[in-house]
Write a structure and sequence with these properties.
186 residues, five-stranded mixed sheet, 4 helices, 7 strands, globular
Length: 186
């Protein structure tokens, strides 16, 4: 929503670029569909403004050096990307390494899986209001990685740069849907 407000002028003059992140934890494979970090730049691109989402393979309590590394690689990507032409939504995933240990940046596709799946939820903390703070419980997915995918790149020490397009409607498969009205309405 902040990206939408920004590109519509809620915070001042025109916006040339939307950057989102640095997100602790990667947004790779199909997990980009659930990412607010990535969603911000896809929203911006849908409204004519390019964007870069930055995520890193490290937790929120990672040392400053790891956040600095992700920031350095994000600046490298911006300095080496032609932002002219149609607006682009880009997702950068940086290994949780010092900048000098990252091998470089690779253009990648999205792997079929980020290498894990949500296996359930657990209560992290009961809240005074009676609610609870919960988190996902993840389990690894063992399989052969796509060599050109984002997961393989990050696991082998490369930063992964993927270009994304918006979600758009598709035609319903023939026979999958029958128009009509219910016989009775409540």
């Amino acid at each position: 929503m902040c990206a939408l407000l920004a590109v519509r002028g809620a915070f001042g003059g025109p916006v040339d670029l939307v950057m989102s992140g640095i997100n602790p934890g990667t947004n790779m494979g199909p997990s980009v569909l659930h990412s607010g970090t990535v969603g911000a730049v896809v929203t911006a691109a849908n409204f004519g403004v390019p964007g870069l989402a930055v995520s890193m393979d490290a937790e929120e309590h990672a040392p400053d050096e790891i956040f600095d590394s992700a920031a350095s690689w994000a600046l490298f990507v911006l300095d080496n990307t032609d932002l002219g032409g149609p607006p682009r939504a880009m997702s950068l995933n940086v290994p949780g390494l010092p900048a000098s240990e990252v091998k470089g940046v690779r253009a990648t596709g999205l792997d079929a899986t980020p290498g894990f799946r949500a296996a359930g939820v657990r209560t992290v903390e009961p809240l005074a209001s009676g609610g609870r703070l919960v988190s996902f419980v993840y389990e690894p997915v063992e399989r052969r990685l796509d060599a050109d995918g984002d997961v393989a790149a990050v696991r082998s020490g490369w930063a992964s740069l993927s270009w994304l397009t918006s979600i758009s409607a598709d035609e319903a498969p023939r026979g999958a849907w029958r128009e009509g009205r219910p016989t009775s309405l409540v």
